[in-house]
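Example record for the data management plan.
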Amino acid sequence: MFFHSDITPIYYILPAIGFIVGLFGTMLGGGGGFIFLPVLTLLLHVPASIAVTTSLVATLPICIVGVLGHVKGRNIAFNIVPVFLLMGIAGTFSGAAIAGWISSERLKAAFGIYAVLIAGNILHDTWKRKEKDQTARKQRGWTKTIKGSFFGLMAGLITGVFGASGTAPVLAGLFSMDIPLKRVIGTSLLVVLVNTVFAVGAHALVGQIDLTLVYFLTAGSALGAILGPMLLSKANVGGSENKIRYGYAAVMVAIGVLMIIK
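Corresponding structural encoding:
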């Protein structure tokens, strides 16, 4: 289940990557698994089955530290969290079971396709955001519950199958509920944390976790996760939010294409 790989020179750049992922992950509402998985598979050529479980464990410190920071900043809508978590937890166990049936190459290609599709959804939602915001204000409580359950299930499945944070579905659901951006980010991170904990438990029963990679990644990510919520609390993100979303989508497309063709 747990093992230590031999250290190679390329490992020494992992703390810097972890720092960037921890910083922006806690500022954008994600744990960083979306970046860790491609780094492990494309840069270090780790088999996808091992990369999934290792990515999940490396994500945990970012989520824990980030959530604590957002709790302190009162950026979490606790009344919304249960809607996402009930279906999300079920999704993580289902996703872990599905991952056990897929080969490493198909798993990597499937993640690439997922990345491109989610990037397209982000671009579409950002382009139509003004209309979506106006309709969101008219939604009733039961509509939000249905949306939260659906996006929570999708996030759980993504976390379980790919070892990614499932941030994109959670953010999509929260944005549709018309709550302030900073609360969207903090709430998303809490949902991601719980999903990740259950996904680690599910994968630990059948997968392998490279603790050497976990140490190197978290050496930088924990520091980044501490600074992220602090910077977000002082930032005025309203004017640049759409630019951030477009940039995030562009990175997702690039990663997705690389995962498919390599």
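Summary line stored alongside the record: The CA atoms of residues 76 and 186 lie 5 Å apart.
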